[in-house]
Amino acid sequence: MAELLNEPDADARDLEFLEDQINSYNIAVTGIREWYPLAIFVRENGAIVAGVAGGMWGGYLEIQNLWVRDDLRGQGLGRRLLLAAEDEARARGCTQVLLDTHDFQAPGFYQKHGYEIFGTFEGIGGRFNRYYLRKTLATP
What we know:
- By secondary structure, the chain is α+β, with helices and mostly antiparallel strands.
- Helices cover about 30% and strands about 40% of the residues.
- The protein has three helices and six strands; from the N terminus they run αβββαβαββ.
- A six-stranded mixed beta sheet has the order 1-2-3-4-6-5.
- Strand 3, helix 2 and strand 4 form a beta-alpha-beta unit.
- The protein is globular.
- The protein starts with 11 loop residues before the first helix and ends with a strand.
- This is N-acetyltransferase domain-containing protein.
- One of its GO terms (molecular function) is acyltransferase activity, transferring groups other than amino-acyl groups.
């Protein structure tokens, strides 16, 4: 009989297996095979000081992480990373971008760059919100 096991320290290979199964199902149902990773970094002496990462599938880019080291914020690196990600998405034929952020992170930053909130998950820790944002990419 199959066992249900709680494995908070699961092996990375097991997590990868799970993701592969979901991706295989998605491909089988949609017929969309093309997936392109996104990883753009700003490095200083080889060390990452800022970056954006995500992936493109089905005509959209999902930004999973965008980060700038604290002492470099406010200098335009986040904007440059976001624009570079959008340019890469356009080059791959994407017409939309999807991302999420918390209210203590950067919703205003994304809204300033044309993203709109389409969903809110309220009450994280009793006082924080998570926002889901999207943007339709203009063609060059």
